[in-house]
Amino acid sequence: MPPEKAMLSDLRTQAGLTQADVAKTLGISPSTLGRIEKGRKDIDDELLSRARRGV
User: Fold this and answer.
1) In the 8-state DSSP scheme, what is residue 55?
2) Of 7, 2, 31, nearest to 19 (Cα)?
3) Residue 4: is its pLDDT beyond 90?
4) Which residues, in sequence order, are CB contacts of 15 under 8 Å at separation 6+?
């Protein structure tokens, strides 16, 4: 798993945010975020950029 995916989950957890909180901010479903965090779905550059700015 690329470090960005693991970091997204770690940062979210450290910030005390749920998948639903972050998914809403990113404009995706919580299930999509869960698949990204588990490495089952690729994260595109735009979404990764939004995650870096928003989390």
Assistant:
1) -
2) 31
3) no
4) 55
pLDDT digits (tens, 9 = 90+) for 11-54: 889 999 999 999 999 999 999 999 998 889 988 888 888 877 87
Query: 3: which 2 tokens?
Result: 């470090």
CA atoms within 13 A on the CB side of 4: 13
**Residue 54: what residue type?**
G
Q: What is the per-residue DSSP string for 4-52?
A: HHHHHHHHHHHTT--HHHHHHHHTS-HHHHHHHHTTSSPPPHHHHHHHH
Query: Residue with structure tokens 């945010």?
Result: 17
Tell me which residue has tokens 């809403």: 24
